[in-house]
Amino acid sequence: MALKARIAGLAYDGRMLHTPASFTPLLAAVDHPDPLTLVFHQGRLLVREDDLALPAAGLTARLELAPERLHPVGLLDGRYVRTAWVESEDVPAAGYAYKSLRALFGSADDGLMGVAGRAAQIAEWARTHRYCGACAHPMSLAAGERCYKCERCGHLAYPRISPAMIVLIRKGESILLALHTQSPYKRYAPLAGFLEAGEAAEDAVHREVYEEVGLRVHNLRYFGSQAWPFPHSLMLAFTADYLSGEIRIDPGEIAEARWFGPGDAWPEPVPGFSISSHLIESARKSGTDRVAPDPVFQATF
Predict the structure, then answer these.
(1) How far apart are CA 118 and CA 105, in angstroms?
(2) How does DSSP assign 131-199, residue by residue?
(3) In a shared domain, residues 172 and 282
(4) Residues 258, 261, 264: CA angle, nearest 5 degrees
(5) Which of 49, 200, 233, 257 is the most buried (most CB within 10 A)?
(6) Is there a single domain that holds both residue 257 and residue 294?
């Protein structure tokens, strides 16, 4: 199945990464004459280099995928989609290569990329749970759910989901944006961080904001959420109002942080498929006195 090539500018275009309405998730394989197989090697997807087409069933068969490495994903426009992982970087034919999902976003069909994000997480879960994490015994799939079970000790392993918060902070007519030291995009973005064990998302907002830039915030409002397959995050987005403090960055996390407001030159936006860009653009469109929950995300989830 060929992915539609499209040119993506850096400007925000309202798109986002999510599974389309035409997708139905499945836990069990179905009989289909031409299944769509998304093959991953170290998180990268196998595609044809010249047009980003996924390999046809005949080419996928050349990889000799073991049955236990094939996992159902769902139905996309009625076509069965499955995923698999491979240990070797060998390709089934000349002209094919493994490409990172980040490189494909914006150059490939948005709906299929949303499904690919889900498939990548399933494939990574399958690859990393072949053996029990408690007793090292081989794992087997549990019936009726997306779960591996150890027949020796009973340990259960579901797909890992790592919740993270992201927050846009307002101060009058300005918003706070930062350069994150670990971000693959060297662009200004809202503050973000992973939740710790036993921590609510709102608690994580307060903690991360204070740790990263030394500020206190209040009036938290939920904005939306987005699955983020790098490799298995769930982004929970909020807005908040500045309460007190002066910017004091944690150099291990933040390279620079500053307020952007009326009259300022706004930084280059992050790619439009992330919830980060939706937060920023919502503030720019509606004004910083109130950033409403994004209807795109509310409709999707």
Answers:
(1) 14
(2) B-TTT-PBEEEPTTSS-EEETTT--EEPPP-EEEEEEEEEETTEEEEEEETT-SS-S-B-EEEEPPTT-
(3) yes
(4) 85
(5) 257
(6) yes
CATH code where residue 188 lies: 3.90.79.10
Instruction: Examine the domain organization and report whether 150 and 194 are in the same domain.
Output: no
Residue type at position 92: P
What's the Rg (C-alpha) of the chain?
21
| pTM of the full structure | 0.85
Pairing of strands 36-41, 79-85: parallel
Distance CA 235, CA 89 (A): 30
Q: Tens digit of pLDDT per residue, the chain (301 long)?
A: 332 222 122 233 446 678 889 999 999 999 999 999 999 999 999 999 998 989 999 999 999 999 999 999 999 999 999 999 999 999 999 999 999 998 888 787 888 899 999 999 999 999 999 999 999 999 999 999 999 999 999 999 999 999 999 999 999 999 999 999 987 667 899 999 999 999 999 999 999 999 999 999 999 999 999 999 988 999 999 999 999 999 999 999 999 999 999 888 888 766 667 899 889 888 877 654 455 554 444 433 2
Length of the chain: 301
Are 1 and 124 part of one and the same domain? yes
- Helix and strand element counts for the chain (H, E): 6, 15
Look at residues 128, 150, 173 and tell me which one is the last residue of a structural domain.
Answer: 128
Residue 201's SS3 state is helix
The whole domain housing 70 covers 1-128
User: Other CB atoms closer than 10 Å to residue 186's CB: what's the count?
Assistant: 10
Strand, helix or coil for residue 126? helix
**Number of domains within the chain:** 3
